[in-house]
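dude i think i finally got it to work??
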Amino acid sequence: MIDIKLEPLGKIIQVEKHTALQDVLFDHGVEFPCGGDGTCGKCKVRVIDGDLPINDIQRRYFSQEELSKGWRLACQCSVKEPVTLELAQWEMAILSDDSRIKVSGREGFGIAVDLGTTTLVVQLIDLSSGNVVGIRTALNPQAKYGADIMSRIDYALTDDGAQRLRQLIRDQLSDMIRELIGDMVPVEPQVDRVVIVGNTAMHHLFCGVDITPLSRVPFETENDGQFSWNSADIGWQIPGNPKVEFLPCLGGFVGSDILAGIIAAGIHQSAEMMALIDLGTNGEVVVGNRARIFCASTAAGPAFEGAKISMGMRATTGAISRVTLENRRMISHIIGGGDPKGICGSGLVDAVACALELGLIDKSGRILDDSGEIVIQAPVVLTQQDVRELQLAKGAIAAGFDILVQRLRILKKDIGKVHIAGAFGNYINVENAMKIGLLDFDHQKIVQAGNTALRGAKMALFGSSDYRSIIERCTHVPLANDKQFMEIFVDNMHF
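look at this
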């Protein structure tokens, strides 16, 4: 066994010789957004003592001076001797849901699971009261093989990749559920049912469905339906051997997390038109009412979560999460305080909105300074490509929304409430999102709805397990096949 000392954490972990750092550092705050390809540079660590090998990928990424100072890409290294590494610990707020569900006095307990691409939330619910009696949150361990959905799918298509990802997530959720139940000792809760929701990729990877169709156009899957097991069948040791259900998806990349969001927002029961926009790792849009519902997904999420942004990062320690103007100067709020390391999605929206107000960017998105950069707070800057990535993301969301409105033959003004779901939607500054054209609605119509996926999963614990009536009203619109999408998308690129 070899010791790896992690600074400034002061932790020592023991691993076998030749262990890949990617397999052990994720739990200690090192991110691997590109899944280990060595292309994103977000997994940088510095060797303080000992040695890590240098390969051609690292020589292309670092200068000779940086390499001599000990900088390495963790995804490209395995340990052959004891080492001391410098890295930054993450501190990430994972969005849960504390709402109490209306109940009919049923006895027992249920477990609701929000299986996200990035984060996991597991709640133990008292079915007699609707109260949350226990909660566990964690990062999705699959993220070490790719932060965004497509990187994760690429890894799943490698030899044994899908099997490894399936086992990783099943083991992680099993551990979280056992901890929740263990907290109830000496009274062992009788769990009646476990409900899991997630996007289509998470659904397939957990359920063992072939993920190949999601890797290519038209992104339509062969089996996105509901799966059900006794907990023992998937290796979960839960008292009473309750039924475990993964709710069905709605089509393409519109998963069961969006079905849960529809349930939580009450769209399927509403007489007036309502909308749901989930700005997570992917971007999903829903518009409809109790008569008909249209839904679509766009590849907009990564920019909102800091991916593809030159100094982008998740909303963790060191990220600029909010930008305001004081005396026409940008003032940054940094998670955890101290100096900024990068900028997350909510900070990106704020920064661009502030830059527009200061006249640093024109409505076409062009940075007007000759340097082609905007300093937010040194060393964090926005590049022209960063602004373009935000334009692509917000243009895709707006275009998807416009197409669904057209399909329903309604106007935007006919929509009563617009629910903004997901962590990014929960923390975003709505006024700034309106300034850049991401949200084109009256402010009073916008509801920052929080974790609607988890809330819908909790509601499903008390309802019927038959979702056919909702699914029959849902029409999935594949935007890649829509002849008008590109034209509408381009129209929505401008600020």
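The mean pLDDT is 88.
im so relieved honestly
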